[in-house]
Design goal:
Elements lengths: L2 H10 L11 H5 L6 H4 L18 E5 L1 H4 L8 H10 L4 H14 L20 E7 L4 E8 L5 H11 L4 E3 H10 L11 H14 L27 H11 L5 H5 L1 E7 L5 E7 L20 E4 L3 E7 L1 H7 L1 H10 L4 H15 L16 E7 L4 E7 L6 E5 L2 E3 L4 E4 L6
Parallel strand pairs: 3-4, 10-13
Antiparallel strand pairs: 1-5, 1-11, 2-3, 2-6, 5-6, 7-8, 8-9, 9-10, 11-12
Helix pairs in contact: 5-6, 9-10, 12-14, 13-14
Length: about 400
């Protein structure tokens, strides 16, 4: 065992700040240290001997690697550590995604996420617990920084799979969640104002006089015009918003050492969306699907494409038929490509003019991250016994959505 792997496993089993009532080393089946190894602090710490059926894996989009909210762990590291410490598989994953949900620098998820067209942050989330065959979701939820936890409460305390809008907020309040008047930060509010200026520069003015006008679309065919989308994408092109935050989602799936699977997806949805719009993230089979006997899959990117194709469910069925994760993900991307026929959604090559990504782990612990194009956000998050990494996504098509 390499020293880096040994150090990671020791850190994974530490169980710090988890509130565990018993030793995490007991839960992992670690042999107790002998008096000789504990005589001085200079001696080497014992290695973890994890009892398991499979090698644990946590996979997520790049937000699961990039954001730490001022702490020492990102989402996949935190979830993995809790998995190997014996936590419930879904509890571990949700604790992981709470990190970017609470991070104001992540503009696509939770607190400080990019708001809808009215400047209001509306959040969606879903979760699925593989061994218990249970699920919960919320859509268009306002005022709660961690919609993933509200989705879990829907799963645990109701007979329903999905609560929306004011009803979802009332449920969250009844369950004891703090309801805030506004989840915007100064940064998300500033970006919303910039979007309004680009969309309607005659009425929304830059007080400093250097506002940018929306991209001129008057010469494009009428069916291709979408000034709101153009204004938002121009902000991505100008480096004001990263592409991942514009579409705004984290999906995180995991395989526990005992072979159990779970998944969670949480998002603010498309930036500047029509108020009340719900994408694929809170819809089972679209933005997330888990079958404990097969695997877990979820997505980021254009939610409407996943809603139309039930892509995550399709991936699980491909796994059930024997496909490996990469091939199952590419099959879903091909289905999306083949069903994208409207001219407004096609580029000059008659291919989809949007990107979409899938994150997949199967029952054997094999995993893959795939995308329509290797463009924009090109990496994903992975954590195994070797530690956290950010591998490249495997694309279906060459080039980029705008080629």
């Amino acid at each position: 065992m390499s020293s880096s792997r040994r150090d990671f496993l020791k850190a994974s089993g530490a169980g710090l700040a988890l509130g565990l009532t018993s030793s995490p080393l007991d839960a992992l089946g670690v042999a107790p240290a002998s008096p000789e190894t504990t005589a001085t602090s200079e001696r080497r710490a014992p290695e973890l001997l994890v009892r398991r059926a499979v090698a644990p894996v946590v996979i997520a989009d790049y937000s699961g690697y990039a954001y730490r909210n001022g702490g020492t762990e990102n989402a996949v590291e935190h979830a993995f550590r809790r998995l190997v410490a014996g936590d419930d598989v879904l509890d571990a994953l949700i604790a992981g995604v709470n990190i970017p949900e609470l991070d104001p620098e992540e503009n696509g998820i939770g607190y400080g996420a990019l708001p809808n067209a009215d400047g209001i942050v509306q959040l969606d989330a879903s979760c699925m617990h593989g061994p218990r065959r249970r699920a919960g979701a919320v859509a268009a939820l306002e005022g709660v920084r961690t919609p993933s936890l509200v989705a879990q409460a829907v799963m645990d305390y109701t007979d329903h799979h999905l609560l929306v809008g004011e009803g979802a907020q009332a449920f969250a309040r009844a369950m004891g969640f703090t309801i805030e008047a506004d989840l915007n930060t100064a940064d998300s509010r500033r970006l919303w104002r910039e979007w309004k200026r680009r969309l309607d520069p005659e009425h929304w003015l830059d007080p400093k006089g250097n506002g940018r006008r929306a991209q001129d679309v008057k010469d494009r065919p009428k069916h291709e015009r979408d000034p709101g989308l153009e204004a938002g994408l121009s902000m991505v092109r100008d480096g004001l918003i990263r592409e991942g935050s514009f579409w705004g989602t984290i999906n995180c799936n995991g395989l526990a050492p005992n072979g159990d699977l779970a998944g969670v997806t949480t998002t603010s949805g498309l930036a500047w969306k029509i108020p009340g719009r719900a994408g694929d993230s809170p819809i089972l089979g679209a933005g997330l699907y888990v079958d404990n006997a097969v695997g877990a899959a979820g997505s980021t990117g254009r939610g409407e494409a996943n809603l139309y194709n039930l892509s995550s469910y399709l991936i699980i069925e491909e796994l059930r038929r024997g496909a490996r994760p990469k091939d199952a993900g590419l099959a879903a991307l091909r289905r999306i490509r083949d069903n994208t026929v409207e001219a407004r959604l096609l580029n000059a090559r008659k291919e989809p003019n949007f990107n979409i990504r899938f994150f997949i782990v199967d029952k054997q612990g094999r995993s893959a991250g795939v995308s329509m194009y290797h463009a924009g956000e090109t990496q994903y998050a992975l954590c195994t016994e070797q530690g956290a990494s950010a591998p490249d996504l495997e694309p279906l098509l060459p080039g980029s959505p705008t080629d």
